[in-house]
Amino acid sequence: MDPSINMEFLKSFDSDDDVEFVETFFNVVQHVHAEESSNAARTRAVVNRDRQAAHDLLVRDYFADNCLYNDDSFERRFRLNNAIFLRISNALKSRYDFFKQKPDARRRMGFSSIQKCAAALRYLGYGIAFDASDEYLKISERTAVECVDWFSACVYEVFHEEYLRKPTQRDIERLYSAHEERHGFPGMLGSLDCTHVVWEKCPTAWRAGVNNDLNVLGPSPLFNDIWTGKAPDMTFTVNRHAYKYGYYLGDGIYPDYSTLMKAYSVPRSEKAKFFTKKQESARKDIKRAFGVLKQTWHVVKYATRLWDKERIKRMVLACIIMHNMIIEDEGRAICTYDPNDVVVPIEEFVPGTNAFLERVVEIHNSETCFNLREDVAEHLYQHSMKDD
């Protein structure tokens, strides 16, 4: 017990129990004071970052009229060109309070929107530690984490309707035309494949099974719109036969769906060999797309250090959106966004009804899958004979 306690004060109590209670009380108070002193010594140091100077330096380097670095340097370091970066930054600043520059409790101005967006892009582009940009942007690790979270979520919320939209009737017509012109496949919507995003903090206890392409396709909502009747009309004709749905090119692991086009596992005839060669060549598009995506956004390529799956999902979707923005800016997009594009009202099928089950049976019809492959193979082979 603290000797400073007045012994006369303790003698004023009638029983030993009262004295013991008071001694315990003072010991607890003394322990709390000691803990507070210890915690005060362990608090993080306050770093007086010059935010405004960092903002001015960023503007002089990349955004001023006579900036130090040109647009090529900016695009190499931040993965986007100057115009796309400013489009995103201005859109987020106009919609979300987090990206607006505001004074803090000490009336010092906080970080600007271009500083926060630049910090997020540095992490997404390089997959580096959150505080790696502290020396240049003067943004601490904690603020950088917030920037990445807000940037990923807001980019998805603002731009997903344009850059992650489902194809309209006009988009499907353009996809059919572009893929037939490029690869010779009529009715082709695209290619289907899977890639992995490594999660460094993934809990591995009691983990079992495997998540390969087939298991990923099972719960995928890829064909949900066809089953429920939401998808627009996709009818096309090949080799004088009409088919109701477009198809994706896939490899041998996928099931025999009428909406999937696989190569022959053992091609024997010249026609089958030619088709297999064309199909495997066309599927390289999806491989290149994944390669470019991961080479541009290293956070998708290397192990991410986030803890939450939803945060990782938002981050990956934001990278895909910006990937599509780059393709559009370079003039390589097959389908351009038209906000006035008329969507034809479609009667939806309720799951469990006969109409819904008929669609499911049509998608899982392996006979249609094989007939479609034969017709496309004949179409490709006949065209190759004409070219020769």
Topology:
Blueprint (H helix, E strand, L loop, with lengths): L6 H5 L4 H27 L8 H13 L7 H8 L3 H14 L17 H14 L7 H4 L3 H23 L5 H15 L4 E4 L21 H5 L6 H5 L7 E3 L2 E3 L3 E4 L9 E3 L7 H13 L1 H13 L1 H4 L7 H21 L24 H10 L2 H22 L1
Parallel strand pairs: 1-4, 4-5
Antiparallel strand pairs: 2-3
The helix/strand class is mainly alpha
What are the segments in which pLDDT stays under 50 over at least 5 consecutive residues? Answer: none
**What is the tally of helical segments?**
17
Largest pleated sheet: 3 strands, parallel
How do the strands of the widest beta sheet line up side by side? Answer: 1-4-5
Overall spatial form: elongated
Helix and strand sequence: HHHHHHHHHEHHEEEEHHHHHH
Please estimate the helix content: 55-70%
Mean pLDDT: 83
Query: What is the total domain count?
Result: 2
Give the N-terminus to C-terminus distance in angstroms: 103 Å
Task: Tell me the number of strands.
Answer: 5
Radius of gyration, in Å, reads: 31 Å
Quaternary status of these chains? single chain
Beta-strand share of residues: under 5%
Pfam families: Plant_tran (PF04827)
InterPro entries: Harbinger_derived_prot
Protein name: DDE Tnp4 domain-containing protein
Can you put this structure into words, describing what you see?
With 388 residues, the chain is mainly alpha-helical. It has 2 domains: 51-163, no CATH class; 169-387, no CATH class. It has helices spanning 7-11, 16-42, 51-63, 71-78, 82-95, 113-126, 134-137, 141-163, 169-183, 213-217, 224-228, 270-282, 284-296, 298-301, 309-329, 354-363, 366-387, and strands spanning 188-191, 236-238, 241-243, 247-250, 260-262. The strands form 2 sheets. It has a 3-stranded parallel β-sheet. A two-stranded antiparallel sheet has the order 2-3. It is elongated. The model has no long low-confidence stretch (mean pLDDT 83). It holds the Pfam family Plant_tran. InterPro entries: Harbinger_derived_prot.
